[in-house]
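Researcher: Quick sanity check before group meeting.
Model: Go ahead. Protein one:
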Amino acid sequence: MNLSHKLLTLLLMIMTGCSNAPVTQAVAIPTKGGITFKNTVVSLTFDDGDADNYAARSILADNNLRATFYIVSGFTNTAGYMTSDQLRGLYNDGNEIGGHTLSHTKLTKENDDNLIKREICLDRSNLMAYGFEVTSFAYPYGYYDERAKQTVHDCGYNNARVVSGGLNTIPPNDAYTLPALPYIVSDTKFAKMTRYVKDVENEGGGWAIFIFHHVCDGCDKFAVDLETFTKFTNWLGTQQANNGLIIKTIDEVVGGEVKPAVAP
């Protein structure tokens, strides 16, 4: 045993007060700017089923994250939108597939009750025919009224998301008007996205729903570039693994049985 080792051993004996006492490990000091999450749940949602959303698959999987993808089934397998096989890949990874109407219709602008029912019910039936358990819905453009809410319920959905309003409680006050954070758009920076999450915890906690559309570099106003999305997702994965942040799909938060498809 060299001199430095002997001195270290003597010092530990003095600190513990007994040569036979166990030596406790030092407690890690959080890095500057770190935060421990105790009451915050985050859900990542993607609207429309755009083809570029598929780029998120591997990034989510690499960080052990799952998201909710709201799909316009009438656009599936057409140019610019994901294929049914791509949706199945996302679903098999544990991501949720939700409904977003048959043709991205503004439900409050339609006067025909049968058309509204077809848009909502047939969309869910189409997605279930691919083998997906479909329980969550998002109103296109966030447009809804009491008639739309009731039809979403009658078509077998357990919840529906709007496009504004801020935070949710768990359980939500109204599962058919789930509020969300402001759209993530092309000029939304990484720092702002992380601040959204930190502010939730600092203000006492809650359920924060993010809304993404395109995942691409400069292709659309409602887009997040791949670098920013990757950076944010990596950050979420780290917070989930080390600091107590909870990331869940919409269905995982709201729950409820999977109801049978309803004919339009």
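Researcher: Fine. The other one?
Model: Protein two, sequence then structure:
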Amino acid sequence: MKTHEDQYQSSTVVKALDILKAIGTHKMNASEICQELSLNKTTVHRLLLTLQNENFIERDEATRKYRIGLSVLELCCSRLSDIELLTETRPFLIDLANTIQKPTHLGIYSSGNVVYVDKIEVLPKITMYSQIGKSIPVHCSSLGKALLMNHTDNEILSILDQYGMHAYTQRTITDPSIYLKQIGQGRKNGYTIDFGEHEDNMCCIASPIYDYRGEIIAAISSSCYSPDELLDEIYLNRMASYMRQSAEKISQRLGWNKNVRSMHSSHSPFT
């Protein structure tokens, strides 16, 4: 029996939300969505097109299955204070920012992008693209490289092929083989570098955060003022040490165990 409030519900909105909930549980193609939600094909295709155009869902062209899109994650940023990742990470980001006197960031992967979910600034402030909720392509950021370190080379190539490697600066990497080489180095070192590949004269260094399964679920980074800073070996080693130590502490807080090996390494990423 319908309540008084039910008459004000939009059936179209309810169906769209049902699709989002279904896709959020597991990836499905249009036919599977029709079957699971008992909706006709015309309705489902119309709603899928609308949701896809607004980036609430996206389709894997290889499998033709839909998954949650970037817009959903961006809307969730206002609720991130309730997420364990943000709660556990923030004290370490603050401590790192105060220690190195530079901005620090926390990012997660989503559909070929890094989404900034936290940022700590220190004085003097510098103008940067990064803001909580904003995104940046994985191919031109240290965070993106760190987030992909647990992916296989073939998986990374598939991501690059799907989302492209647009050149934002003269330093942007547009050659997949060079990108793979940098990620390979990152797996050995426990950190990755962006030499002004998204913003001119703005470089970053990042390290991945692992969970109890040994999976990379996020990454932290810090910004430098120019490529010259990271080209200084002594400075780079000091920054890398701070970054790796902070990432290791966060990972341990999230249940990561040094005996849990990542798929690409026979040793701890922080040793």
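Researcher: One line on it for the slide.
Model: Strands lie at 57-60, 65-68, 104-110, 113-120, 135-137, 192-199, 202-210, 216-224.
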